[in-house]
Fold this sequence. Notes:
Layout: H1 2-25, H2 32-62, H3 67-76, H4 78-81, H5 85-101, E1 103-106, H6 113-127, E2 140-144, E3 164-166, E4 174-178, H7 179-187
Parallel strand pairs: 1-2, 2-4
Antiparallel strand pairs: 3-4
Helix pairs in contact: 1-2, 3-6, 5-6, 6-7
Amino acid sequence: MVLIRWAAAVAIMIFLALGALSVAIRPGGKPVWLSLVACAVLSWLVYIVLTRKARRRIQILAEPFPGEWEAVLQRDVVFFRVLDEEEKNRFRKDIKLFLGEKRVTGIGMELDTTTRVLAAASAVIPIFGFLDWEWDQIEEILIYPSRFSQDFQFGEIRDHRTLGMVGTGSMNRLMILSKPDLVQGFRNPGDNKNVGL
Length: 197
């Protein structure tokens, strides 16, 4: 909401500044109203661009939290179960925003709800204590059906040892995870081997 108010103030200031400038200059002898309309359109476009992310977030948060997601959190995410109710609501909000803004893509497989929610929980848990911190540097999570090699091959070959990684270079802005290791990390929280975290 603060961003929307700030963007509205910026758009109004742009309109007033350009409006005053166009009245003073009157380019090409054009009528003042035409310049004011152009200033209004430009100001509106600035507002739309500056508030796009905030408006999208409002839309995402207006949706109810899916029952399927809640079931996954209750069943598989110990971290979630030990939170108080206020913290659980914030965790749910963070999950909704993460899944609403980031792509979670299955490589060579269809993704199920459990995998999507666990991938989001993997992103939310490490930053949960930092209220204003977000995963701006990640746009997509790729989920492989098994462990994979350093050149992203997967299948029957035995040298596939990579459980997960954060992309660099041409793979920048990606997180890459092995589905079995992601799920196992949440099912066995005591082993401290959660690939998503």
